[in-house]
Amino acid sequence: MVRYIRFISLAILIYASVSAQQNIPEPRGYVNDFASVLNVVSGRNIEALCRELEQKTGAQMVLVTLSSLNGGEIHDTASRLFETWGIGQKGKDNGVLMLDAIEERRIWIEIGYGLEGILPDGRVGEIRDRYVIPYLQEGDRSSAYLSGLAAIASVIAADAGVELTGTAPPAPMRRTSRTNRGLGGIIPIIVIMAMMALMGRRRGASGWWLLPLFLFGGGGFGGRGGFGGGSFGGGFGGFGGGLSGGGGAGGGY
């Protein structure tokens, strides 16, 4: 009976492992925007940065966005993607994976074993806090990805003694609390309301009808450009079979 239970347990584990492997999508390049949250220009800028880094140092950086983890853990998902795709050069294990789970609002940066010496967990965490999380909290995913990956690329390039000449990344931002952001949005509204009241008194009529125009604008553009998730350019020759060291940093935003 005990042997039978062990056999069933082993079969379940094997089935779960195979199913997990089957759920991993095929890589489409350095930028794998499966959640379709990037615009074309930003995607191409990130693609160009990753390509230049590989050409000059051999290191491979990859961005992945997923709509949802479907109940999984972001660290486990990042590790499975890293190992299955083989990010980085075989034997050098010089890969980097940035994974953003949109629904869960969680980010993870996985570092290959060969880069852990120059990108230890503490340093990756600092990059996350200064270059990634603040932009994500403001809803600017494009700047978050480009800024964070550029900061990582600069560390790798400096260690290799090379210079990267691509598009300048966004500057780091200070991480602000939700309370401060909320007050920042309320104060302008109070000022506008006071202006409307003053205008109404001077003209002898109410100025409140102008309030929606000040708050929401008389017109504008909504949404983002639509395109299917995937890569943003040619020149991708596949990954080299690198391994993850299990290091990195992540968290919610």
Automatic annotation (TrEMBL):
It holds the Pfam family TPM_phosphatase. Keywords: Membrane, Signal, Transmembrane, Transmembrane helix. Gene3D superfamilies: 3.10.310.50. InterPro entries: TPM_dom. The chain crosses the membrane at residues 182-200, 207-227. Residues 31-154 form the TPM domain. Residues 1-20 form the signal peptide. It comes from the Bacteria. This is Methanol dehydrogenase. It comes from candidate division LCP-89 bacterium B3_LCP.
